[in-house]
Amino acid sequence: MNLSADLDDNIDFLKEHLPLGRSFDIMSRPLKLGQTRAFFLGINGFCKTDILQQIFSDLQNPLYMLDNRIEDIADYLNTRIGYAQASLADSWDTVFCNVLSGPAALLIDGFSQAIIIDARTYPARGIEEPDLEKVTKGSRDGFVETLLFNANLIRRRVRSPRLCFSLHSVGTESRTDVAIAYLEGDVNRGLLQKLADTIDALEVTSLTMGAKSLEELLLPKHWWNPLPGIQMTERPDVACSYLTEGHILVMVDNSPLVLIFPCTVFQFTQSPEDYYNSPSVGTYFRLVRFLCIPVSLLLMPLFLLFAAYYQELSLRIGLLSEALTPRRILFYVFAVEFLLDLFKYSSALSSGKFSGSLSLISGLIIGDMAVSLHWASAEVLFYAAVTLLASLSINGTDFADGLRIYRILLLLTTGIWGLPGFIAGLGLISISIATTPTFGGFSYFWPLLPFNAKALKRLLFRSPTPKAQPASIWRRGAVKSDKKHFKC
C-alpha cells in the first residue's frame, strides 16, 4: 500500500497500524519545515539522536531555509538533507520495515513519499574471542549479534571489490535481516541462486534462535541424522578463509553464528590453530584430531564388547582387573556416560567462576566415590575419560555431539546383542552418515566421494602458506534440484 499525499491521512494510518502514544519506545512528533507541515517517526534507542537533532535543527533554521515551502521532495532531499544515508520510500511496507529496523522516517505534507534517514545505532557487546573456538595464537575477535558489525569484520579482512553482501528479510513478524556474502566470480552461481530463492520463500513468523533456526529451515533433517549438514563459526578469520575459497556465508542479525555453504564432513576436523603453528606441527595436530573421531566413537563400545562378552581375553590383556557380570559392566558404562555428560554440560553452563572448580570436583571426588560405592569401576572411568578427551579435541561441537548419539546407539546394540549388535550398530551408523543431507545436494564426503586427490591432500595435511593460496576454486559439480518446500 502506498502513502497518501495528505499528511493527515498518513498520520491516521500510522496511528491505526502502530501503537503511537501507547508504546514508550516509538518516537513521533509534528514538525514545521518553513511553512510546510511534516511528521517525524523513529524508534528510541535505535536512532542517533545527535545526528537527527543536527539535521532537523538545520532544516528549521530560517537562514538555512531559503524557500518557505517545499515544492519537490527529491530536490529537497538532495539539496537540504546533507546526511549520506538518506533515501525516498513510497510504500508503507518499506516505511515500516525501515523504521522498525532502526532508520527514521520523515513524512512531508503534499507528497506521497517519505524520507528515510538511516541514522541507526544498535546496542552491541564488545568484539571478543568465541569461547568454543579459542586459539593459543592469532586474532581474538569474534562475530557479535549486530549484522553490520559482522559485515565490517569480513570487509576488513577481504578488501576485494568483488565481495558482495545481498540482504534478505525472513519472518512475517520479526522481519530478521539475513545477509548472503560471496565473492563475485568465485561463487557457485547455482548454489547462490538456490540459497537466495530458498531464503526468500521461507514462510515463518520469526527466527526464534537466529542462525540455528535458519539452519533447520534451510536444511530439514530426519531424527536419524544427528551430524550437522551446515558448518557454523563465530570466528571472522575462519569465515573469510572459506569465503576466499569460493564458499558462501550466511549471516543473521541478532546472531553471532555464520553459516558456511556448501558443507562436507571434513570441514569439522579443521581448526584455525593448525595455521597459527608451523606446517609440521599443524599437520601433526590435524592428524591427531582425525584419530580422535574413531576413538570417540568406538573406544567405549569396544571396551564394553570385550569386557562383557570376552572376559577371559579382557583379563589376559589387562582390560579388566577383576571378573564382572555383563549386566554390571553395562550398568557401569551407561552410568559413567551419563555422569560425564552431566558434568560437561553443568560446567559449560555454569559461571566461569565455578566451572573450573566444578570440573575438579567431578573428576576427583565424584570419580573416586563412584568407584568406592561400586557405581563404576576404575577401568570404565579411564576409558570414559579418554573418550571425553577425544570428543573435546574435535573442533566442531555439533559434530562431537552427533558422534555422542552414535556412541550411545552403539553401546546399546553392543550391550544387548554382543558382537552381532556391534556390527549391526556400525551398519546403522554408516547408513545414517551416508544419508546426512547437505544444502544443494553436494556430497557430504567430498573430496573422498567423488575422489579429488589434490583437495584431499590439502585437507589431511597443513600446507605452507605460499602453497595454500586458493589459486583456483574447487568445483564440486552442479546443484541438485530439491522438490521439497518447507513451510511453518
What does this structure look like?
With 488 residues, the protein is α+β, with helices and mostly antiparallel strands. The protein folds into three domains: 7-117, no CATH class; 131-264, no CATH class; 275-437, no CATH class. It is 47% helix and 12% strand. The protein contains 17 helices and ten strands. The strands form two sheets. It has a five-stranded antiparallel beta sheet with strand order 1-2-4-5-3, sandwiched between helices. Strand 9 (248-252) and strand 10 form a beta hairpin. Helix 14 (397-417) packs antiparallel against helix 15 (419-434). The longest helix is centred in the middle third of the chain and has 31 residues, at 279-309. The protein is elongated. It starts with 6 loop residues before the first helix and ends in a 20-residue tail after the last helix.
Q: What secondary-structure arrangement, pairings included, does this model have?
A:
Elements: H1 7-17, E1 26-33, E2 36-43, H2 49-59, H3 73-80, E3 86-89, H4 92-101, E4 104-108, E5 114-117, H5 147-157, E6 163-170, E7 176-183, H6 189-201, H7 211-218, E8 231-233, H8 236-244, E9 248-252, E10 258-261, H9 279-309, H10 311-317, H11 326-349, H12 352-372, H13 378-393, H14 397-417, H15 419-434, H16 453-460, H17 465-468
Antiparallel strand pairs: 1-2, 2-4, 3-5, 4-5, 6-7, 7-9, 8-10, 9-10
Helix pairs in contact: 5-8, 9-10, 9-11, 9-13, 9-14, 11-12, 11-13, 14-15
Number of helices: 17
Low-confidence stretches: 483-488
Q: In sequence order, what are the helices and strands, one letter per element?
A: HEEHHEHEEHEEHHEHEEHHHHHHHHH
Spatial gap, N to C terminus: 26 Å
| Radius of gyration over C-alpha positions, nearest whole angstrom | 29 Å
Query: Which structural class matches the secondary elements?
Result: alpha+beta
> Domains counted in the coordinates: how many?
3
Shape: elongated
For the largest beta-sheet, the strand count, sense and barrel status come to: 5 strands, antiparallel
Q: Report helical residue fraction.
A: 40-55%
Largest sheet, spatial ordering of strands: 1-2-4-5-3
**Fraction in beta strands:** 5-15%
- Report the mean per-residue pLDDT as an integer: 85
Topology, number of strands:
10
